[in-house]
Amino acid sequence: MRKIVLSFSVAFVLLLAVIVLNRVTYNNTKGYTLRTDHSNRIIKLYDRIGNQLRSAEIFSPSYEQSAAGGLYAVYKADADSMVNTLFRLQKEVIDRKEQITIVDSMLFLTKRHIDVLRKKNILELINTREDWRFGELLQIQQLIDRGSKLEEALLVQRRAGLDRSNRQNNLLTVSLAVFALSIIIATFFSQFYLSKKSKWLEGFLESVLNTSQNGLLHCRAVRKKKEIVDFKLVYANKASSDLLDADPKTFVGKRWSEIPAFKDASLFTACANVIATQQEAELEHIQKLANAEKSFALSVAKLKDGVTISFYENTDIKKTAQELKKNITALEQTNRELEEYAYAASHDLQEPLRKIKTFGIFLKESQYQRLDDKGQQQLDKIIQATERMTMLIKDLLSFSGLKTKNEEFELTDLNEILNNVLQDLEVMIEQKHAIVTHERLPETYAIPVQINQLFYNLVNNSLKFSKADLPLHLDVSCKPVQSKDIADVVGLNPGETYYEIIFSDNGIGFNQHYARQIFELFKRLHDKGRYAGSGIGLSLCKKVVTNHNGIIVANGKEGVGAQFYIYLPQSPSFKTPSAQEDE
């Protein structure tokens, strides 16, 4: 008894010593954590200032009205808060002589250049030949790097000191603990604790598995001469009743050969293969019941010498998929019928229109002078209306006739297409005194006829909406771009390279608010009496670009001009069109 009391007394004293050592270690760690947090704040402020400096170098007020105006607003906010961040950093390093020198230098240089950076970005500074600023901007970045490295070196030094101290304390703590606790007591308490924890975990796991919406089964292989001849159901959660068609508890411990739901030989073969190959398997199981038939999706995985099966009923999902497939087929048939009807109706409409126009012109030539002013005006309106209707029907036929077949895609020289379009519009170009310039365009996989329609409509659109008092200047440019570099363009395929083809003119332009609307069918932004057209041209452009898995974007300003950005995929793997041809 005295030995036990003495042992506990010695153990108690040793444990007190361990507590004291742990307290010392805790205080050291706490002090290190506080100092580390302070250094990390300083490093983060340096990083933030670096980011704000880069934002200030990128930002330019000239971009605020562009399509990326929202992005440049973030850069402007960063630039505006740079000085405040420097003041915060100055407060953080108030007790660091070397850091104070760095921050003061940065603050002086920043105040010297920040007002200029709010008005001009780096590119604009280059154009204004203010090269002397670049050296000081570089100096700010070097000061940022130097300040960060000072804090990082201090962190490493503190960490090394803490590690040395903790190693000594830990070594002494372990030694005292070994003396304080005997193997018997440690084993006893450890087993007692583990036993309680194991029971809790079993109850917790059971509750989790039974609340799962998926059925879960674990089956152990039954072997005869090392060959799997059957499986034994070891565990089944509550949701398994869907597959077993009974209370799972009544089947736990039984072999598959005794359970009706597992009579399917293909299920046995699949599970045996999972054990043999150690590869998970996905399969479908049909459970035939008295009144109905259920379908289950099963996932089978190996666990020791058995399998774990997770499953859910997908009967309704399969029925829905089948109904959806039927509806899609019916919809495709309806679309084909509507296209045939629209095509036939448009053709049939042209014949009476030709007669109306022919007789209208005949009346104008033979009876025009016999009509009074009102009659002449009405006859003119009839002829004009038939001309507009004829043009509308032709445009509708062109729009509905834009089909996409894989075999129509071929390597196409865009320069040849553009030159042909300019020749077709040569008379109109001369009448408008227009100047058309273009860069060398690439070759790409495309449908030549459709690209011709695209270029024709864009050039014709610029000529139509040119200014009366200013010769039109239309410029066509092209360059390859990565989708990540034009993230503001919605719909591009991530990680792909595109040709960015830009049609830019100095015509009457349009309000950017209507940039999406102009691509809609029959949408017009201008008076049809002043500007001829059916409102289909740009809709046709969008459909052509969509057929080529591309994107078209409009950018305009009233009285200044318009730009149309076309993004066509560069990779030959994109020459097969998407299923969006009838959008």
TrEMBL record:
Enzyme class: transferase
Transmembrane stretches, start-end: 171-194
Reaction equations catalysed: ATP + protein L-histidine = ADP + protein N-phospho-L-histidine
CDD domains noted in UniProt: HisKA
Molecular functions per Gene Ontology: phosphorelay sensor kinase activity
Domain Histidine kinase: start-end pairs: 344-572
Lineage: Bacteria, Pseudomonadati, Bacteroidota, Chitinophagia, Chitinophagales
Protein name per the record: histidine kinase
DNA repair keyword on record: no
EC number: 2.7.13.3
Pfam families xref list: HATPase_c, HisKA
Keyword field: Coiled coil, Kinase, Membrane, Phosphoprotein, Transferase, Transmembrane, Transmembrane helix
